[in-house]
Fold this sequence. Notes:
single chain; alpha/beta; Glutaredoxin
Amino acid sequence: MIKHIENDDYEKEVLNKKGLVLVDFYANWCGPCMMLSPILEEIANSRSGYDIIKVDVDESPEIAEKLEIDTIPTMIIYKDGKICKKIIGLIEKDEIVEILEENK
């Protein structure tokens, strides 16, 4: 399942989580972001062992600014609350799964 969060939940849902968390930074007006969304849904529904979180940069600009996100979509993979990979732009499902598996 994919969870949508805002500024106030970021620490609890991402930084304080044990294990792997993929955070997708997106906007509703972003074409590539909308193309990425069903890919992440498919991954969330077919795999387990990590959380997928979505953050709308228009609704939560503080997080995006703090992480210096200036291009969307941007995915950041956290392991035990620490950034282990940053992916900028739209990539294929297989690549996302491979990166998640590498960082487990």
